[in-house]
Amino acid sequence: MDAHTRVDTQVVGALPLVAAMLEQWGLAEVVDRVVPWEGDVALGTLVEVLVTNRLLNPKAMYAVGDWAAQAAVTDYYGLTAETTTDSGGRWSVSPSTARRRKAPLRWRR
Known about the structure:
- The chain is mainly α.
- The longest helix has 14 residues.
- The protein is globular, with a radius of gyration of 16 Å.
- About 13% of the residues have low confidence.
């Protein structure tokens, strides 16, 4: 590395551990299979972001997107702060759209 090489660092804390745990559990896949969703971002991914938020920063938050950008969660999932913030109730699920699919739940072991 010479004197002209620029290196950017980012503190990610326990994000790699939490992300690996959620991936091993298959949380996003289960949520996507069981809950109908028509959002811009897969609901399973949003659930993983929210679970990651509660595990890494267990405080009540309104704008999760700002935290997700600061904590490298948006970079990890390839999202933006705007797509991880529920503005205007886009994440709400009405009873008519919450009908469960008839897909069996199978947990990976």
